[in-house]
Amino acid sequence: MSTQINRSWQMSGFGLSRLSQTQGKVPEPGPRDLLVRTRAVSLNYKDKMIVDGVLIPDLTFPFVPTSDAVGEVVAVGGAVTRFQVGQRVLGQVIADWPDGDAPPVLHKHTLGSSLPGMLSEHVIFGEDAAVLAPPSLSDIEAATLPIAALTAWFALAEATRPVAGQTVLVQGTGGVSLFALQFATAFGLRAIVTSSSDEKLERAKKLGAWQGINYRTQPAWDEVARELTNGLGVNHVLEMVGGDNARRSLNALAADGRLSIIGLLGSMELSFPILPFMRNRIVVQGLSIGHRRAFERMNQAIETLAIKPVIDTVFGFDEVPQAMQHLESGPFGKIVITTS
Ligand SMILES: NC(=O)c1ccc[n+]([C@@H]2O[C@H](COP(=O)([O-])OP(=O)(O)OC[C@H]3O[C@@H](n4cnc5c(N)ncnc54)[C@H](OP(=O)(O)O)[C@@H]3O)[C@@H](O)[C@H]2O)c1
């Protein structure tokens, strides 16, 4: 096995110009590991932040970025019992969080941050940190699930329980937000989507959005959200931006509303007044993707609810820099790179 070549994209430093294709040996699986031939890898906004040196400034090089991949098990360690050669699997990104409470120190064993990333033809998953890919999805579709879908699922279905008829507001039309829109719609929630583009809002409506608000032309989108809900406010906001945007999110919320802190598209800090939290008894929760059990439950729901991930663009393995650049453009859904 180790004589085979393994092509990867590796960072030798920060910046896209220091991301290059390399050839190494195919890794050997340890006793409880799966060797996986990847088929597709999806990008997340944080991959750009890692390549740019914003998210993990003390990263050690060389480093293979990205966290989400689907592939086929091509070899297993001698003690593996959960999987077999030939199965199609996805990696559990927070590899040491199978269920229940998160590990005391999060991200000590996370794919594409403290563990090597997925931009390789062959990767290793621990057998406890892998799930079967949903059979109804293509490789390109399945590769989008490990971070974006699981984060949206966790926010809507694990950290709380969806109540049909309630309202949820999702910000932007990137990976996490469109999964949130699709899950919310499937659960019978009324989803309000904000976007910089009317054209994207039209597309969001075709995916089930109840209402759309253009946050460029209507910067006071929180007031519009209140009007749309007869002055009551929305029950749940998925905060994707941070900074002052969170003040508007708070204002958009109904009494006993929930604010899920997920994204930092605009700022690494949050800013809001305290009194509305008390007055409206707002629940705030930070999210960090999710555990493997939730991933398995989500995959089952994806099958039952016939959810199809929204793909923005697919790139080839030789086009990784272009794919990373495309993240800048504000994708509608997910960017995927095929690896075979
Ligand atoms: N906490 C977690 O576990 C977790 C997990 C996954 C992602 N995240 C974070 O969540 C955020 C989104 O991630 P992603 O991978 O879904 O990103 P993405 O796919 O790159 O989505 C980007 C989209 O966000 C929208 N956007 C950008 N600036 C905005 C603003 N000021 N207001 C509203 N929308 C804005 C744009 O939509 P329009 O063009 O429609 O405006 C853009 O298309 C990132 O900060 C990421 O790091 C956190």
UniProtKB/TrEMBL annotation:
EC assignment: 1.1.1.-
UniProt KW Oxidoreductase keyword: yes
Top-rank EC class of the record's enzyme: oxidoreductase
Source organism (scientific name): Mesorhizobium newzealandense
CDD domains tied to this protein: MDR7
Pfam families: ADH_N, ADH_zinc_N
Keyword terms of this UniProt record: Oxidoreductase
Any one GO MF annotation of this record: oxidoreductase activity
Coiled coil: none
Domain Enoyl reductase (ER): 15-337
Protein name: NAD(P)-dependent alcohol dehydrogenase
InterPro entries: ADH-like_C (IPR013149), ADH-like_N (IPR013154), ER (IPR020843), GroES-like_sf (IPR011032), NAD(P)-bd_dom_sf (IPR036291), Zinc_ADH-like (IPR052711)
The keyword Manganese is assigned to this record: no
Segment forming the signal sequence: none
